[in-house]
Task: inverse folding
C-alpha cells in the first residue's frame, strides 16, 4: 500500500488492522469517530511515505495527534497508544510503533487521530466483564482524557446498566458523585446498543466527550482478553 488511508477507506483487516477495521465499520454506519487516517500494515515509512503522512497531519488542522497500534491478527488487540504527538515528532513516533510491534512478532497498521480535549472519557462494555452477565452493560468513566482509565490501570466510576431497560442498577460511588450525568449515561447506553446491533456482536468501546459531544476512540470485540483483568 503506497499511501495512507482515510479511516473509512478500507475495512480490510489485512490493510488497516483490527482497530482500523472496526473504526471503519462504525464510521461507515454513521457513528461519530475522531477524525484521522490510517498508515496501512507493512508500510515502510522510510520509503517516501513520510511526506504523505505529514500532509495528512496538516490536513487535520491540529497541533497534535494520537497514534494507536492496530494489529493485523484478530486475536490480538494492542493497547499501545501514544498521545500528544506533534508534527516534528510524528514520523519518528510512527517508526517506533512499527518497529516495536515487529520486535514483538506482530504486524500492525497505525491509526492516527486528532488529539481531543475530553471532559470525560472511559470504556463501555456490551455486557458485564465481571460476571459475564449479558443483560448488564458496564460503563467505566472518569474526568478528562485519562489513559489509565482506558487501559484499566486506574480506579474509575463504574456504572452498571440493565441492558433490557436502560435502568442504572449499580454504581461504585453515590449517584451524586458519579462524573457522568444521567443523560450522558443514557447516551452511552444507547450507543453500545446501536453498535452491537449494527455489528452483530458484543463489543467494547473507548469513548470521550469533547465540548459536550460523544466520540468513539477505539472499538474491539468483547473477548476473554477484554474481561481477563476483571477476574
Result:
Amino acid at each position: 500500500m503506497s499511501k495512507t488511508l482515510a479511516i473509512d477507506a478500507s475495512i480490510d483487516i489485512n490493510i488497516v488492522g483490527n482497530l482500523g477495521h472496526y473504526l471503519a465499520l462504525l464510521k461507515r454506519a454513521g457513528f461519530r469517530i475522531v477524525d484521522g487516517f490510517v498508515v496501512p500494515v507493512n508500510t515502510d515509512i522510510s520509503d517516501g511515505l513520510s511526506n504523505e503522512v505529514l500532509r495528512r497531519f496538516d490536513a487535520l488542522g491540529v497541533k497534535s495527534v494520537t497514534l494507536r497500534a492496530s494489529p493485523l491478527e484478530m486475536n490480538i488487540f494492542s493497547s499501545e497508544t501514544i498521545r500528544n504527538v506533534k508534527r516534528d515528532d510524528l514520523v519518528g513516533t510512527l517508526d517506533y510503533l512499527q518497529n516495536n510491534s515487529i520486535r514483538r512478532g506482530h504486524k500492525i497498521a497505525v491509526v492516527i487521530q486528532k488529539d481531543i480535549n475530553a471532559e470525560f472519557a472511559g470504556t463501555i462494555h456490551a455486557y458485564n466483564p465481571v460476571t459475564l452477565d449479558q443483560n448488564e452493560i458496564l460503563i467505566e468513566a472518569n474526568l478528562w482524557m485519562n489513559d489509565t482509565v482506558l487501559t484499566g490501570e486506574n480506579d474509575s466510576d463504574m456504572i452498571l446498566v440493565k441492558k433490557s431497560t436502560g435502568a442504572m442498577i449499580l454504581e461504585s460511588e453515590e449517584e451524586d458523585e458519579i462524573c457522568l450525568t444521567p443523560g450522558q449515561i443514557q447516551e452511552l447506553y444507547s450507543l453500545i446498543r446501536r453498535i452491537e446491533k449494527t455489528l452483530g456482536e458484543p463489543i467494547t468501546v473507548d469513548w470521550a466527550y469533547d465540548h459536550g459531544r460523544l466520540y468513539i476512540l477505539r472499538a474491539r470485540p468483547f473477548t476473554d482478553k477484554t474481561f481477563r483483568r476483571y477476574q
Notes: The chain has a mean pLDDT of 85. The longest strand covers residues 213-221. The domain at 5-114 is CATH 3.30.1490.20 (Dna Ligase; domain 1).
